[in-house]
Structures are given as C-alpha cells and as structure tokens.
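Entry:
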Amino acid sequence: MNPVLQIFWQNLRLQLKQSSDLVAPIAFFGIATMLAPLGIGPEPNLLSRLAPGMIWIAALLSTQLALDRLFQRDYEDGSLDLLALAPVPLELAMLAKTAAHWVATGVPVLIAAPLLGLMLGLDGGSYGALELSLLLGTPILSLIGAFGAAVTLGARRGGALLAVLVLPLYVPVLIFATSAVGAAGEGLSPWPHLLLLGSMLAAVVALAPFAAAAALRNALE
C-alpha cells in the first residue's frame, strides 16, 4: 500500500476507535445548533435568516474539539519522531493525518447539516449551497487547525492557545461560506463565494502541510 494512504488509514482507524474524538464534535455541532432557537426565539423568518450563520459557527467550533490531540498522542509516545525519520516526506504525512481528521469530523457535519437546516427552517434553495460550502470549507478548517496544532504542540494550555491562534484565520471561511448560503436563499448565484472558497482550499492544501511540517520539526528539536 502507498505509505501515505497507509498513514491515512491508520490515523482514521485510531480516530474512529477513540469514541470521544468521534462523538464529541458531532454532538457539539448538533447541540449548539439546536440551542440557538432557545436563545433567539422560535420566530420562523428570523431563524431562517440566521440559519446559515448558526450552522457554520457550530461547525467551525466543533472542528476545534479534537484538534489539540491531532499530534499530541504521537508526540508523547514517540511516533512523531519515527514519522519525521520515515522515508515519506513529513509534509505528505501531515496531509494524510489531516485528511483522516477531516473524514472523522467533517463528514459527519456534512451529513447532519441538512437535518439541522430543516429544523431551523432553512430556505429550500439553500441546501445545495450549504453542502457545497461545507464540502469546501471544512477541509480548510482542518488544514488551518493542523497548522495551529503543530505550532502549539508541547505548549502549556495548548488548547486555549490553539483556539486563539486559529479562530481569527477561520473568519474568511465563515464569511464566504455564509454568504454563499445566504445568496442561494435570496435567489442569487452562490458560485462567486463558492469559487473563492475553492481558491482558498487550493491555497491552503498547497501551503498548510509545509507550514505544519516545519512547526513539527521545530517542536521535535
């Protein structure tokens, strides 16, 4: 098997075996979205207008829950040192680990989002844009989060530091994703916003693995 795919499958199996890492993000995503109507009221038109933002904020925060442990276990048991010495480039290994994180946390969000949108009264024409925005946007969150996890690896209170580091970087994703869903709900084309998200994804895929690998090498020195 290709070594990169082997790293991906191994990390995905570990993610799936850790029930807390798998259940906590999707549980947080659902609970945070369902609590919103209790705070702002049950008025259907208001909920429909706010639904894209509420769903995306909950998705953004849910990806944070398992990020601080993305490299921590490997760092503590010495696996990260072996990975750095392996013939596979560390950049590709980081990309494989991040892909496994996205499958374990982002794909459940993609599945649950339409159900939560239905509960919030999301406009019927917005579901396609919502799913496409999540499909393009959640990998960006995972890649940026992987960079943040690498930078804060070994730091005291790394989880809090990680949130402070990456949440500002998530803002453009949140803006373009919610704008795409909102435009679709108003009968406008969501594609300008989705294309910007796609461009961001391409840039982050090209840059984040190198930045994360450099941060990990620095942490291992």
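The chain has a mean pLDDT of 90.
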